[in-house]
Amino acid sequence: MTGAQPLRRTAISRVLLPVDFSPGSHPAAALARTIAAQYGARLWIAHVVEPVAPPAAAFIHSASAMEYAAHHMSRFVKSESWEDLDFETVIRPGEFWPVLSQLVEEHEIDLVIAGTHGRNWLGKMVLGSAAELMVRNAKCPVLTVSPRTHPSPLAGLLRILVPLDTQSHPASALAYALTLANENNAQILFLHVLHQSAMPLDYPDEETIDDERYSAAMARLREMIPSAEHFRREPEIIIDSGVPADTIVKIAMKTGADLIAMPVRRSASAGKVHAPWHTAYRVIAHATCPVLTLAE
Asked: The pTM is what?
């Protein structure tokens, strides 16, 4: 088994919280408050005023849109409890991801915390390609939380589920998850899904795992995972079969995972989207716990 020594503590001192003022923003705000307090981090609460397409553009002046956003930002801040936190609000016009990317660079953000609307991200603001651009191009981890999850503060983590693809070696993501687990005395559950062809939903338990594929996957995982002395709590390796995204969500629920820490492949171009990305998207959309994505 191989692996580098983990960092002593997860470096979280600057947090970015994008909001659209919808109900989906509030669970993310609650988690952002907790994490900012836990790590003594500075928090930026950001809203992006995106260009309005015709014919609506004829009725909405850009200045009016900025005033509208400022009004709702004020209401949003008053509706939450931000006492004793070091925070700043930011409202900027432009396209969602370019603006967020600029904020991440400007303020050297360590963590982005984003709310989701179940199957959608932040309402109309981050649907489809914009979601992928944020997750697969952010130069820091992105933590997503939906209204139906029960987000725990990072200090309360007991189990972290880390899905791994044996075809790659996400070293930095592994190191980050390991550090986060050790500082919370949490257990890491490493999961590899042997992809099976789609089967009728009436027979979800009839898939079997080929012994040869299982043994090969286990051997590869043991090569990838850091050696035992790097862990405060003994990790567990899980190999299952099925559709990757659905299996990840299923195992997270079955094991009571508090967090899914998921490596994702960084896009070759920051301005383009790439297929397939449906696995990460489906996990984020359907998970019942927060999902931490780390681009490699």
From this structure: 0.85
Q: Which residue has the higher pLDDT, 246 or 132?
A: 246
- CATH fold group of domain 14-145: Rossmann fold (3.40.50)
Other CB atoms within 10 A of residue 71 CB: 11
- Tokens matching residue 81: 């409890």
Omega before residue 276 within 30° of 0, cis = yes
Residues 6+ apart with CB under 8 A from 237: 190, 192, 218, 221, 222, 225
CATH of domain 156-295: 3.40.50.620
Which tens digits make up the pLDDT trace of 241-294? 999 999 999 999 999 999 999 988 876 555 444 444 678 888 888 888 999 998
Look-up of token digits 């716990």: 289
Decide if 14-145 and 156-295 have a common fold.
Answer: yes
Q: Could you tell me if 137 and 267 are in contact, meaning their C-beta atoms sit under 8 angstroms apart?
A: yes
Residue spans per domain, the chain: 14-145, 156-295
Q: Which two tokens stand for residue 229?
A: 């002395």
Whose CA is closest to 116, among 295, 284, 280, 278?
Answer: 284
273: number of Cβ within 10 Å: 15
